[in-house]
Amino acid sequence: MAPHVRPMPGAVVAVVLGVVVALAVSTALPTGRAQAAAGPAWGVVASSCTAASVAANRAVGLTVVEVEAYWDRYMPARAGAVDAGYVADLRARVTRCLDAGLRVVLGPGMQYPPAWVRALPGAALVDQRGRTAATGALDTVFSAAVRSAQADYLKRLLTDLPAARIEAVRLGTSTEGEIGYPGPNAAHDGFLQSWWAFSPAAQQGTGLAAGAVRTPMPGWVPGQRTWQGRPVTAAAARAWFGWYSRSLTSAIKGQYDALRAARFTGQVHLPAPGRGVLPADLTAAANALLNGTGDRDGSLGRGLDYVDQFPVLARSVPRLVVDLSGVDDASAVLARRQSPAQDACRSTDPAASVAAGTPVHLWSNLRFARAQATRAGLPAVGENPGPPAAQTGGTPDSDTLAEQVRRAPGYARSCGLSALLVAFEWALDDPRWGVTRDDYRRAVLGGP
What we know:
Elements: E1 11-16, E2 19-24, H1 32-38, E3 41-44, H2 51-59, E4 64-68, H3 71-74, H4 84-99, E5 103-107, H5 115-118, H6 144-160, E6 168-170, H7 200-204, E7 226-227, E8 230-231, H8 234-261, E9 267-272, H9 279-287, H10 299-302, H11 306-316, E10 320-324, H12 330-335, H13 349-352, H14 365-375, E11 380-383, H15 401-414, E12 419-422, H16 425-428, H17 437-445
Parallel strand pairs: 3-4, 3-12, 4-5, 5-6, 6-9, 9-10, 10-11, 11-12
Antiparallel strand pairs: 1-2, 7-8
Protein name: Glycoside hydrolase family 42 N-terminal domain-containing protein
InterPro entries: GH (IPR017853)
Region (Disordered): 378-399
């Protein structure tokens, strides 16, 4: 769904409670005015693609599903050795969804590495204190060994699956399958401001991945006022952060290159959490030499700077689509309480979002991040956080899943998203969360 998109069927007709409803789907996932006219496609995250789920999704007019693979189940023992039973099951499920006319986005599940990958030399991310992430985050950014293992896995995965029929593959660097380094307190010791670029690869270039660049200031720790006996300037601190955040884009480009080497020609989806650091906050952070000032939501340590990263990725990763994972997240709840409300996207947002004096801190994550994607010329899809109590991305301040499903389609339309994928299919099948596929259908189409 990037500037160049793969043609899709002109329309899908779904039977909804005995009523035939035509859901218009353009011949490509469009952008701009054409996208607004066509409207988003509707789907779900983490589809099981069982016969029952396929029937249930088609019955309410859903047209796109995300299907998740698991690296640790695919290659549990060693590189090149696969679990044939798991591979056959995954292939059957993906094929079942495709044969039913559902468009498939593949999550390769690189956030679930097998034990033998975790044991590779230099596999763990390391922060400035020499700590590793308690979440088990791998160094997908700087480690040549990890990147090579990822590339081998992607090649095998796309060889074993009907890759030519898969619409898109998701890429990411984090344990959530999104772009970013680990978040605050990832070492689980109460320390909030970790910077995950202190491995031998990142600092000395030992075992550095192809395309990655080692630190421009070896040994310098954010917050320190001097480096090699000289004062550190705000410009130098900002340049260091630019290297840190752009290293993520280099990692995504490396994964993209692995896809293309495996002859995958479809779209690339980049799940992007939150909104990234705001321009004024980055200036304040650099002026304070990255000592923690301005890190409003953990975006600095996670290396998220969409204002800069999205244009870089638009140039280096063809057919890229940004997957905004904060549709009706907790920030939307706060933004719509403002007067006037600041949650919905507006046509003036791309320019206003980077203009001095715009109160973007009051905007929802979706609104600000969508503006950056538009500035970069990138189309976007979206997904909601999911049930707050299930620890899938929601917080105690988030809407309930039922409320997310009710509100998310409106946000998808106002922000010109090409598709909205509700998180998660399993939640729509579980009465504990108080929402069903019919509720999703009513939110999209209206009526009883």
